[in-house]
Amino acid sequence: MKIILIEDLRSLGKKFDVKEVSDGYARNFLFPNKLAEPATPGALKKLESLKAERDKNENLIIAHLREVAKNMEKNKLEFLVKTDKSGVVFGSVNKESILKALREHEFVGKERVDIDLKYPLKELGEYSVPVDLKKGVTATLKVVISKEEEKK
């Protein structure tokens, strides 16, 4: 029996895939659990329009992420850290602090991003940090760690 998957199933396929399964599996498991529907001509036509809409939304998301990446690469994030007299940094700049700063400066909203930082930054200077914005879009963020001026 041909079916259209409504949900992703690890053992069978992704959402909107058309698959061939046994009649018993479809009637006794997939249909009652609302994981699939029969692949009727009407359902296949509806599937094409759903796929087109999903692709359109996907392209809009990718365009937005590319815009975010371009904005990120133009700007720098500066972190002011406390140091001792010899310039040794107290504390460090880690993934969480960079992500927090990205959200505060409105580079990203609630999008999920992966910051590829192998270890926390513990020295003064400028660093290039790769940021994965998902959907195949990446950016390189400039992070500057500067000495915080002491108040007198």
- Count of beta strands: 7
Secondary structure category: alpha+beta
From the alpha carbons, calculate the radius of gyration and give it in angstroms. Answer: 24 Å
Strand coverage percent: 15-25%
Given as residue ranges, the uncertain stretches (5+ residues, pLDDT < 50) are: none
Biggest sheet record: 4 strands, mixed
Just give the CATH class of the largest domain. Answer: Alpha Beta
Query: What is the H/E string?
Result: EEHEHEHEEE
Distance between the first and last residues' Cα: 79 Å
CATH fold name of the largest domain: Ribosomal Protein L9, domain 2
Instruction: Kindly report the average pLDDT value.
Output: 88
Give the CATH superfamily of the largest domain: Ribosomal protein L9, C-terminal domain
- Report strand order across the widest sheet: 4-7-6-5
Coarse morphology? elongated
Please, how many domains?
Answer: 2
* CATH architectural designation of the largest domain: Roll
Oligomer: single chain
Give me the number of helical elements: 3
Into which percent range does the helicity of residues fall?
25-40%
How does this structure look, described?
This protein is an alpha+beta fold and about 150 residues long. The chain folds into 2 domains: about 1-65, Ribosomal Protein L9, domain 1; about 65-145, Ribosomal protein L9, C-terminal domain (Ribosomal Protein L9, domain 2, Roll), CATH 3.10.430.100. The chain is about 35% helix and about 25% strand. The chain has 3 helices and 7 strands. The chain has helices at about 25-30, 40-75, 95-105; strands at about 1-5, 20, 35-40, 75-80, 115, 125-130, 140-145. The strands form 2 sheets. A 4-stranded mixed beta sheet has the order 4-7-6-5. Strand 6 (about 125-130) and strand 7 (about 140-145) form a beta hairpin. It is elongated and about 75 Å long. About 15% of the residues are buried. The model has no long low-confidence stretch (mean pLDDT about 90).
